[in-house]
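tool_log.txt
---
The assistant was asked to compare two proteins side by side. It first ran the structure predictor on the initial sequence, then on the second. Raw inputs and outputs are pasted verbatim so the downstream comparison step can read them without reformatting.
(1)
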Amino acid sequence: MIESHRVEFKRELSAKLEAEVVAFLNSPEGGTVYIGLDDRGIPLGVDDIDTTQLKIINRVKNNILPSTLGLFEVRIEEKEGKQIIALAISSGTEKPYYIKKNGMSPKGCHIRVGNSRQEMSQNMIDDLYSSRVRNSLNRIVSPRQDLTFAQLKIYYEENGLTLNENFAKTLELLTADGKYNYNAYLLADNNGLSMKVAKYAGSNKVDLIEIAEFGYCSIIKATQNILNKLNLENITKAKITSTLREESRLVDPRALREAVINAIVHNDYSTEIPPLFEIFSDKMIITSTGNLPQGLTKEAFFSGVSAPRNKELMRVFKDVKLVEQLGSGMLRILDKYDRSIFKFIGNFIKVEFKFVDENINDTKKDQDVSKKRPRNVQETTNKEKSILLSNSQKRIIEEMSLNKQITIKDLAEKLNYGTTKIKTDIKYLRENGIISRTGSTK
């Protein structure tokens, strides 16, 4: 790893931290500041790393404007036995960003040029400010002000977090004059947002057989419900030949999950057009409103560069563990599929998952068969046959793939079934070679 337009090395935490962060915020692709590396990338380590990490978070939050909420994350990494700090910064959507004490001036506004940082000219600052999006969600007043957030508080509590009485201000759910903004509206218990999952009989939109609405509730709850619905529709197919057994889902579950969350969290809600999820006989299509953010190239988009359109929503999704590391979702999708599944059409982005093996990356095809098959592929001497799985059996497989140590009791509680049914389903899955358990089942 060397310094570049997206990577900066620092021996230690210095007074120039804010300037480096501002430069990445104002750049099209963002970047990462590594603290504890010399100019050649040799690890030096960081003394009192926990205190240093806290100082970085406080300085980035308090010393830079506009708000950096949801635009950065701090990670502790280990290189050659020494701990260093990685400060990952997304490209901001409210440029120009500046150091608070220096104001919106060349001394306060910086940009990344090659592997160095430069002050912006006043003309560049003025141009960026004049083109700043005026209708960002944190400036749009919620159409309702009688909002409640019981659902949001439950999701935070489930993740060990507490929303205090000042949470609306902390999460930037208020306009400058103290009214609930559109982010608050989307996160509230009741709103007018409806996201639809449409199912068609064939490969086109001629024969609509089902349309399910998810919404009019917190966008977090709606997201969970959509993920559950698509997970059920993403059926498991099992095939046994004379030499081996293969079991797979119509769409890779992790890639599908990431595409759904990306569509919801990055949708341009200022258009009042929500994401759409469609299921056909041969594919699933996810459509979100809003093209790539200004300055973000397709190459940067596909490389996992994080430039969240709705940084306040991104912060909340990350808090409740729907989003992991910034920019990681795209990499998980492209780990299983190639770029051709993405279509940029006008002001919309479509992701099309075809139910065919050809959609898998060639690099994955070139791996040996044991790596391509799911972990529960087993040898068998049965004649070729198909195995049908119930919804409960599919859900058991999903939970066991996420947690190898899960017990029958845990499965019963998680899936809301009795232990007898769980045992019966597990017996069926074992007898058909779909799972193989070792150790205690208690």
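(2)
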Amino acid sequence: MVCDSAGSEYPTDFVENVSLKHSLEELLKCMLRVWCREGQALTKLGVPEPESDKTVIVKREAGGEFGFRIHGSKPVVVSAIEPDTPAESSGLEVGDIIMSVNGRSVMDATHSEVVRLAHSGPDVLELEVARTCNVLAPRVSRGGPKENVEVTLCADYLWRRATTLNSSGVTTEKWVRRWFALRRDNCLYYYKTDTDSQPVGAVMLLKYDVELTPELKAHSFVISKHGAPSHYLAADNDEAALRWTTAIREAVERNNQADTWLDASLKMQQIPACAIQRPDCSGYLSKQQHRARKTSSPTGWSRRYCVLKDAALYFYDDANAEKAFGVACLHGFRVHGSAPSSGGRKHAFELQPPDPTQRSYTFATESEMDKKRWLAALEYSIDRWIKVG
């Protein structure tokens, strides 16, 4: 079998230096590219097309939004899904490779061509997608044997008030049912269902107030603080509402005494990469040194093993290192698919801070597919976290 090698020019010592795990990841990515192209090849040969991983139907209201974002081109990858939108309820997932839109193949389409095709058509999108989340970054069940790191303090279905904008430009409010989990890190995570392993949102319970709001809905309460969006939730009965408000108040009090997110980040620096549970992404990245970035030099890059978890990027000397030598807190950062200061380095991208006085980061991957995987994971990890403070 011959694999499409576009965007996969590895250094001569690549195979000798990488771990077995990373080698297998690269092989899986190569197999995925071959599989995605298989349908096109069989079509030209007159063979019936094989089925994709999944066909997703996304239906928007007239004049509304589909509710998902894509990144890259040839092919495009789903990089973010907005909560309480048609995309969220359709089954579309972050990391999905979009193979076709309404029966038209987009494997060789650019980002702008896919966007134009989606918006110029009807209000219903039929998407054929190839899943990457379970192939390149297998998920760990929330009930797995190593979940003691993320002990759940309180978990149950709650109603969450969501605000939507209709075709007439009028905002409407509705209550949607979501699975909520308050963990030992004093963060409140919410999922579409209790079987999902990837949360659609998370709230760091720092300096929040909790108040009952019976005038809005029975057994409802609000989590609010100055300068941040308020979160309106409702339980099914008074007992559940009391249990949740008590647990959230206790979590807020613990966070007010110490910033747990930063504390957890420092603690995770002291453990091996393989011990970080359910990372958003992991693998080798080449990181441009600060001095080289100023001069746009093609040299001055160091190859590091990186683990992304909850908008924090941990740096290791290699995949077997006992602890991280550094961590970058990426709350509020923006992800850019190009890197003008990379000195022409292939597959480079930048992370820009919200404050220009903060440090920016420039990275490069070994292949275009790996770059798309990191860009999608970074956007998802950063976007689903509300900025602390």
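---
observation on (2): The first strand starts at residue 54 and ends at 59. The CA atoms of residues 206 and 389 lie 7 Å apart.
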